[in-house]
Amino acid sequence: MVRTGDVRIWSLAAARLAGVLAACAAGVSGPAAPMESLSLVGATDKAPVSYRAGEPMTFKIQLLKDGRPLAGKTLRWSRTGDDQQTGSGEAVSSATQPVLIKTAIGQPGFVRLEVTAFNPDGSPLRDGAGNPLKFDGGAGAAPEKLVGYPEPADFDAFWRAQRARLAKVPMQARLQEVPPLDPAFRLFDVRVDCAGGRPVSGYLAVPKGAKPKSLPAQVLFHGYGVGPAEANCHRAGMLTFDLNAHGIENGRDPAYYQALRDGELAGYAFHDDTNAKPETAYFNGMMLRAMRALEFIKSRPEWDGRALMVCGGSQGGLQALNAAALDHDVTRCDAGKPWCCDLGSVTLGRLGGWRPSFADGLGYYDPVNQARRISCETVITAGLGDYVCPPSGLSILYNNLKGPKMIEYIQGSTHGYDPPAPQRQTVIHK
Fold first, then answer.
1. FRET pair for 282, CA 20 to 30 Å: which of 38, 82, 87, 129?
2. pLDDT value at position 178?
3. Is the pLDDT score of 15 beyond 70?
4. Which domains does the chain have, with CATH numbers?
5. Dihedral sign for Cα atoms in the order 44, 45, 48, 54
């Protein structure tokens, strides 16, 4: 069902969606960019993921200067899609009417529309940051009918083996108190023994004076990259653990992290040889650490034993969704533009993106497969121009989730950018 709200289950959902990327670990877009003096905006003639297969889609594209239509500029567009069809064209912007671009897709899936603005002399118009002015968005037909690439036959057996492997390593935690950024909290640099070659590492923020069994808990996960955990992880009234994706040291000088980026952890997720098998894929250790991080925070005396949340954007969303599937004590998962959803879709002709090449070993970590094991409340954001995390994969993720769920599609949103006041569509199932 499609709703605009459900007070009983989703009374806080709008607020969470508005702040999910800021609240989650680093790695996706931050707050929406301010209105530029020049902007290229787009919307569809109806809710952007409400089309039927074969139904005409009309995009309305308008060039604005200081919020007013700007005439006489060339708009060049290209259309791609999950149907492997392409198209292109150009038009001239008008001061009175938007440029209309019409297309359709004859099967469940998404169309991507990219539009760039040029001066009459052929030079590109640029936004306030100096980048070529561009709209990157799309529309979907029957996304509820999309299905993913088949999951591995031994998926559950593999994860039973990984849990057993983790259980063989005693959970020994070492906490070093460090100066907090907020004086209302105590902050600890944490290391916890773990299977997978590296320990869990991160920062734990505890409100001062917290009583036993008094606080909900949250684990925050980070986007792609190599760096420290975030010490500024304080959340009022909450026990928060900010997890380092790699189990490396926190609080080191920049040269330490640069050496890892250039050496041991260079392109860590993109090695086809190791991704061929689930035991050797880099994500194996990452998800073992996610499971151990949840075990650690549940062992804290301040946890209330009831509310346990996971949150992340991009790669952090990948980790959060795996964590929610692998630990059924998780009560809520917020995943902003989660990465690596339905990696096998490229073999089915769908648009891919900036992510690892499909390999058999990655199917064990693909969130669309883990989604079938997630029963907690889950909130997802998707950009209709995001081809780091294509909207088809996020739709399949949503379709596979078993618990109460919500996804918001944002028009003109790419992986690192949300436009001001975009067209949005929210889909909710209890």
1. 82
2. 97
3. no
4. 7-30+148-429 (3.40.50.1820), 38-145 (2.60.40.2550)
5. negative
Are 311 and 290 in contact by the 8 Å Cβ rule? The answer is no
pTM (2 d.p.): 0.92
pLDDT at residue 242 is higher than 80: yes
Q: Which pair of structure tokens corresponds to residue 97?
A: 């009417």
| Closest C-alpha among 272, 268, 283 to residue 226 | 268
3-state SS, one letter per residue, for 157-180: HHHHHHHHHHHCCCCCEEEEEECC
- Listed residue (241, 225, 255) closest to 189, CA to CA: 241
Mean pLDDT, to the nearest integer, of 170-190? 97
Element (H, E) at 397: helix 391-400
Sorted by sequence, the CB contacts under 8 Å of residue 300 that are 6+ apart come out as: 204, 206, 217, 239
pLDDT, one tens digit per residue, over 350-366 is: 999 999 999 999 999 99
Q: How far is it, in rounded angstroms, from Cα 268 to Cα 9?
A: 39
- Quick one: which H or E segment has residue 77? strand 74-81
End-to-end CA distance of the chain: 9
Q: Identify which of 332, 196, 175, 327 has the alpha carbon closest to the alpha carbon of residue 241.
A: 175
SS (H, E, C) 164-223: HHHHCCCCCEEEEEECCCCCCEEEEEEEECCCCCCCEEEEEEEECCCCCCCEEEEEEECC
Residue whose tokens read 């073992």: 288
Which helix or strand (DSSP H or E) is residue 38 part of? Answer: strand 38-44
Nearest to 233 by CA among 246, 222, 248: 222
What's the gap between Cα 405 and its chain centre?
15
Residue 52, judged by CB atoms within 10 A of its CB (0-12, 13-18, 19+), counts as exposed
| Coil/strand/helix, residue 48 | coil
pLDDT band at 4 (very low <50, low <70, confident <90, very high): very low
Contacts of 235 (CB under 8 A, 6+ apart): 205, 218
Quick one: residue 225, left, alpha or beta (phi over 0 = left, psi -120 to 50 = alpha)? Answer: left
**Residue 242: strand pairing partners:** 203, 220
